Amino acid sequence: MRRLFWTAVGAAGGVVLYRQGQKFLAGAREQGVVASAQQVGLSAATTLAAARTLLAGAQRSVPTTAPGKAASRVRR
User: Fold this and answer.
1) Which candidate, 39, 41, 46, 75, has a CA 20 to 30 Å from the CA of 32?
2) 7 backbone dihedrals φ, ψ, rounded to 5°
3) What is the pLDDT of residues 32-75, one digit of tens each?
4) Cα 2 from Cα 8, distance rounded (Å)
5) pTM higher than 0.90, yes or no?
């Protein structure tokens, strides 16, 4: 039963991606090659900026306290 469910989910996802791809290609034909290339470049740049922001947030050091001093840092 699980396999049937995931097969159906995969098929539905494939159909959605196919339709989105067809819309993208139709729009690219209308706009021309240069405008489509600019949109792809802008999308890639936006994705990279978001990834850099996430990585920078993950690399921040977490402040640590010395053992035995944790109780003195608790605020009430």
Assistant:
1) 46
2) -65, -40
3) 767 777 888 888 889 888 888 888 776 665 555 555 555 555 55
4) 10
5) no
